[in-house]
Amino acid sequence: MKRKRIPANIPEHILYIGVLVLMQAAYILAGFTGDETWFGFNQLRHLGAEWYAALMLAAIIGIALARRFARRDMLPDLSMLPAYGKTVLSLAVSLFAVALFITFANMDVNRDGLRFATKIMQDVPARGYFANHDELLELYVHSRFWFYTQSWFGWSVLHSYQVLSALSGGFFVYLVLRFARDIPGAGWRFALFIFSCGFMQLFFGTVENYSLVATLLTLYLYSSYRFLNEKTSLVEPSAVLAVAMCFHLLAGWILPSLVYLYVTAMRKRRTKEILAGAGVFAGIIGGVFLAFHFNGLPLRELLYNSHALGHGGDFGSKLAVPSWEYYRDMVNVLFLLCPLVLIVVPLAIHGRILRCPFNVFLLIASSFSIIFLFVWRAQFGAYEDWNLYAPGLIPVGVFLAYNFVKAPPFKLSRTIFALLLATAMLHTYSWIISNHYFPH
């Protein structure tokens, strides 16, 4: 794995300190001046200046104590655990995460969530499920889950959404921990980086149709990593992305990354894998859509009633109308969901972006996710539609985390990472907790 280094006179740690100072300044200015415009930076307003100062001070003291203990070898080395011990620990952390997700479930339900709740209560008694082609299996699974939980426990549609969102979040946490174990030298830093991102709000009981596809996209990234490292065949990522697209068509925006996997297989002359992967991919999508076609959801509705196909070809109505205000809001969404995105600057300047197949794959997936963010119109406004873009920004988070944790240590690297993490987590979880206690 080669790195392309750009000549730089500024020491690496100074660049990261600059990013840290910029983040702190943006969060303080936007959070405590009452400006609602910069919602990607103003979530500390829910904490208040006193609590923020106290928590940041506690983080700094904790980092100082951790450095002192680490020098004395007092921190446990989890890498020494046997494989079954790591699996048990990952499962325990995932179950604990599910409990947190449910406890602090998002009570800020948007118009789509309320509309789907109504449609589910109408359609499930009539035909057994509710679905459309844009969110086919996502809606189907949620509607069937409500059918059983309402019958057994008397749950409302909204509560069943929240629980299933939290359960999918538990699987997401487990996947991230497995991912971290498989990346040499990554460990807990990779996982904590991902958990500091704002897209974690998806799993805190968000009543929308994105939590399941987000977990499947994470599984796709992990499967692709395994394929590129000769640990599985091309069939696995092909099958996972096909299933993800059946859950929600937005997963199709990162199809070019799957094409890259096929190009990689072609270079290695894995003809049988290519044919098998393409057959499985087409078979899953075709089979699922045909099954629904013959069970109450005809394919003509895909052509004329789907957002993805512009409701009969009117794509212009689905695309963003360029304006300073709109793109400013989408920048807010980017920083709300990936608060550490600015570290790409020191990574690039000091040649820390790896030139390896997995990074090419992540760059393709991330690039098309960013295109989606700025091209596809937020129907309800950027802030209310944040969850539409959250699954696609998971590849961006993985790209940043992967390159940061794989970079060689630099001066004060552990301290800087801990401070960046504390800064991002305070902002992210101020937003998440506020959506539980102070919904709009």
Share of helix among residues?
A: 55-70%
State the end-to-end CA separation: 47 Å
Annotation, overall tally of beta strands: 2
Low-confidence stretches: none
Question: Approximately how much beta-strand content do the residues carry?
Answer: under 5%
Shape: globular
Largest sheet: 2 strands, antiparallel
Please give the oligomerization state of what you see.
single chain
- Please count the helical segments: 19
- State the strand order across the main sheet: 1-2
Rg over C-alpha atoms, rounded to the nearest angstrom: 22 Å
Mean pLDDT: 90
Element-level helix/strand string: EHHHHHHHHHHHHHHHEHHHH
Class based on secondary structure composition and strand pairing: mainly alpha
Could you characterize what this model shows?
The structure is a single chain. This protein has 440 residues and is mainly alpha-helical. Helix content is 66%, strand content 1%. The chain has helices spanning 12-32, 49-71, 83-103, 111-127, 136-153, 157-182, 187-195, 211-228, 235-247, 255-267, 271-293, 300-304, 310-313, 324-337, 344-349, 357-375, 386-389, 394-406, 413-437; strands spanning 2-3, 354-355. It has a two-stranded antiparallel sheet. The radius of gyration is 22 Å and the shape is globular.
